[in-house]
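name: query_chain
kind: protein
chains: 1
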Amino acid sequence: MASYTFDGVKLKVAKGEMIFFGVSDGDFKMALVTSGVFENQSTGAMSDSTVWDDVSACEITENVNYNTVGYTGPVDLTNVGTLEEDVNGFTQLKVSAIDVSYPVSQIDADGAVVYKNDASKTLVEAIHFGSKISSNNGVFNVNISNNGWIRIH
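structure:
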């Protein structure tokens, strides 16, 4: 599973415009998306996306070729936590949250997008699953790594 931190996030953190410490449940949302979000990553076009509206057309509910039974749309991330650690002399910030599960579902998705749940809806992170994954009347899990879904150094 690969992830991509949107370009503007690091600058917002440096300027103090985006804070990950002391956040509340629901301050960030996660939506399941199709491969369309990731198709332009290698050309740099993905970095041009800055807000949820830029990529919302790639949410799985917008594509008839993706199962969405049991998917309730963007969900609040809960228990968002941060950890600072020294990595080769540089401070690295890791942000994580509780895994997201959709019980008894039929869902197809290529990845997930995390965005700030405020008026700006700033894109924070795109998580690529590597390929389309599916659930068939089972649980669809998005395992948010203990190593952090976003790393800023």
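note: Strands lie at 2-5, 28-33, 68-69, 75-76, 81-87, 90-96, 100-116, 123-134, 138-142, 150-152.
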